[in-house]
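Worked example

This section walks through a single chain of length 124. The input is the sequence exactly as stored; nothing has been trimmed or padded.
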Amino acid sequence: MKQLFNKLLALSLIIATFFVIPLSSVSAATKDDVCVGVEAAGASCTESGTTVNDIIEVVVNTLSVIVGVVAVIMIIIGGFKYVTSSGDSSNVQSAKNTIMFAIVGLIIVAMAQVITGFVLDRTT
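Given that input, the structure is written out below as tokens.
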């Protein structure tokens, strides 16, 4: 079970890396900078396209989905460990901890969603 958890953790870190590396090359252009370029091309600047807030929202949502999937998998693994513990108190405690930490992870992700949404709404 520990090897499975380590593999899932490594996989989630690899996936997260593919979302973080492209963000490092994104420049923080203001709306005015984008509008000047768009208007110079002969178009109007009613829609400026992708903003930094949009990118942050997409990244947070994607990472939340990944963490949510991993948490559900860990809850299933914890339930399986609990059922197969055969009454051994250390195995039961390990299964309960697995389930509890997965739920705590889900709560943290939910709070990150709320905080990110609040901050992004206040900055626009």
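What to look for: The chain has one domain: 2-123.
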